[in-house]
Amino acid sequence: MDTQALRKKYLDFFVARGHAAIPSASLVPENDPTTLFTGSGMQPLLPYLLGERHPKGTRLTDSQKSFRAEDIEEVGDNRHTTFFEMLGNWSLGDYFKQEQLPWFFEFLTKEVGLDPNKLYVTVFDGAEDIGVPRDEESIEIWRRLFGETGISNGFQEVGSEENGYKKGMEDGARIFSYDAKKNWWSRSGVPDNMPVGEPGGPDSEVFYDFETEHDSSWGEHCHPNCDCGRFLEIGNSVFMEYTKTGKGFEKLAQKNVDFGGGLERIAAASANESDMFLAVDSLSNVIKHLEEASNKYYKDDLKSFRIIADHLRGAVFMISDGVRPSNTEQGYFARRLLRRSVQYADTLGIQEGTLVEAVAIITDTYKDHYPELEERRTEIERAVGDEEARFRATLKRGLSKLEKVMLKHEGEVGNQKEFEKAIPANEVFEVITSDGFPKELVAEILEEHGTKTEWKEVEALILEHKAKSRAGAEQKFKGGLADHSNATTQLHTAHHLLLKALQIVLGGHVKQRGSNITGERLRIDFSHHEKLSDEQKAEVERIVNDQIQAKLPVLKTTLPRREAEALGAEQEFGQKYPDIVNVYSIGPAGASPDDPRLDESFSLEFCGGPHVSNTGEIQGVFRIKKEKASSAEVRRIRGVLE
Question: Distance between CA atoms of 187 and 194, rounded to whole angstroms?
Fold first, then answer.
């Protein structure tokens, strides 16, 4: 079953059970500057899991585009990918365990056709320190479901992952309980790491057994959470009924189901193929293209083929959602994906232009569900081609710099054997980091020339550099809309005023291309081709401050998407919206929830909030602190309330 058919089958299954199908949110999170990418299915739905009413009701289903930057270095094995789709179904205070677990079991065994003998499940073992008991209800549901199929349904208490490697799997065991490290889910991980206000809860995971031989290098015995490759997690039902408070863990006002199932992983299980890159059509199609272009076989260089296929797919989706390769924020990762693709394309002897050709293969695979990929294909191809050309120029400069460094130290002995050449670690580090010259390529060149360096010292410098960058990023994205603070809420409403003011002063071509809002300042990226004059900036500030002084009402209205579009409501670039949407209007004076007068508003935007109820609640005077280029045809403004 290809991924397109599988996605449709899943969505249809839950629509038939009363769920509203909603579109995927963008890879670039809307109104959440605390994270660079959407990395899970629940991320865009967090306000509704916390109690806000969703315009489409209490039962939802979707397939969410997701990207996890931390997995870049893991790509190369048979299962890790950076981009993936997460199938989701959601109960917002509606059904719970008694419906969720049987539905997913039915979907896997009846709709996908998986053999229940190859399915194993895990449940939460309980945690005394937070007062949450073992999930006995899920255990009983699973015992009944497996028992009805006539196969083993035994339960085994495991506890920690380490215990799993020591104990192995008891005869007849099908249901296994693990501690909070494995069977508790929140965005922050285990309960101890959760900040106050964060929701979470026990989960129940389903694993598919490929029945491959256990690799004892991972541990003495195999078990469902073993990383040897035999078992693959294909779905996780989170029973999100707790939130962390200053006093400990308390029940949320509503019990939620947050299900996430890896589309690609279920596809691999349906094909009984443990190699994700062969089981998933969007990856295998690119690999076939690369084989033809390189005259090499996938089996002869698994790592190179896998990295290119994964990274290209991730970059295509990023660029489609408005990300452009750069040295900062999301753009850094788009650049890194494409440059690693070029690097490994060179390893395969692939000529320039082959990666651009693969864009069409990816967009063709996804265009039925994500038509924006096809609509923006030319734009994506241009971005990929431009970045490849820039990186090849970088490689040329880096090679020249490395050759100069080697020549400079030729004949030095240091601690190496006589007649060998040694290069100080700090100079190798400089070559790698200054121009983005790949470490692997540096190592290869040094080896070819019989030149040595202290790689442990180089690695230490690289780790230190990454740690500083990460700390900077964490500081940069600290706070923001995720905390719904009063200061952030005021700046969020000012952000709406600013976008409209820019359109008034510069023209209707101005569209938002990104935003980042914390309690200290706002940032907006917008489409415009030249630097703003001092007069233009002053006029924008005047318009914003006039609306603040006018004390205009700020109203949320739920209405059909087409009606909102007809009214000219602004949309977040790269976002797909459901048929029923929330819009926020600012003004006119005298508007009310019963009579919002949307066609007369000063500002009208698709948005999930939060906002002040009246612009008069915005404290201070709005000022533009900085205006500069962000990328080609995109400008950036940082503004504050003083």
Answer: 8
Question: Helix, strand, coil shares of the chain as percentages rounded to 5?
Answer: 45, 25, 35
What 8-state DSSP symbol labels residue 212? Answer: P
Count of alpha carbons within 13 angstroms of residue 372, beta-carbon side: 17
Which residues neighbour 207 within 8 Å (Cβ) at sequence distance 6 or greater?
119, 120, 121, 122, 224, 225, 231, 232, 233, 234
- Pick 33-66+81-271's CATH classification: 3.40.50.720, 3.40.50.2300, 3.30.930.10, 3.20.20.10: 3.30.930.10
User: What is the tens place of the pLDDT at every residue in 372-383?
Assistant: 999 999 999 999
Token pair in block for residue 266:
């279920």
Model pTM score: 0.73
Find residue 184's DSSP bridge partners: 202
Residue ranges of domains in the chain = 33-66+81-271, 279-476, 481-641
CA gap 336, 76 in Å, rounded: 15
The confidence score (pLDDT) of residue 416 equals 47
Residue 332: count of CB within 10 angstroms of its CB: 17
Lowest mean pLDDT among 70-74, 107-111, 117-121, 624-628: 70-74
Q: Report which residue type is found at 131.
A: G
Give which of 622, 334, 618 is closest to 502, Cα–Cα: 622
453 closest CA partner among 465, 439, 466, 443: 443
- Kindly state the DSSP code that residue 209 receives in the 8-state scheme: E
Distances (CA, A) of 410 to 95, 220, 419, 451, 458: 71, 49, 9, 9, 19
Within 10 angstroms of residue 353's Cβ, the number of other Cβ atoms is: 11
Compute CA 444 distance to the chain's CA centroid, rounded to the nearest angstrom: 33
Cis bond upstream, residue 610 (ω within 30): yes
Classify the phi-psi angles of 339: left when phi > 0, otherwise alpha if psi is within -120 to 50, otherwise beta: alpha
Q: Give yes or no for a contact between 99 and 259, defined as CB atoms under 8 angstroms apart.
A: no
Q: Give the DSSP letter of residue 11.
A: H
- List pLDDT tens digits, range 457-502: 888 888 887 766 556 444 433 323 434 678 888 999 999 999 999 9
- Overall residue count recorded for the chain in this entry: 642
Positive/negative CA dihedral, 600, 603, 608, 613: negative
Cβ-contact 602, 487 below 8 angstroms: no
Helix axes 281-294, 302-320, angle to 10 degrees: 120
Q: Distance (Å, rounded) from C-alpha 259 to C-alpha 267?
A: 17
Spatial CA neighbour of 122 closest among 167, 177, 160? 177
Beta bridge partner(s), residue 121: 175, 206
Q: How many CB atoms lie under 10 A from the CB of residue 378?
A: 10
The correct answer on CATH 3.20.20.70 for the domain covering 481-641 is: no
Residue pLDDT, tens place only, 217-226: 999 999 999 9
Query: Residue 302's Cα: distance from chain center in Å?
Result: 25
Measured distance CA(556)–CA(47) in Å, rounded: 15
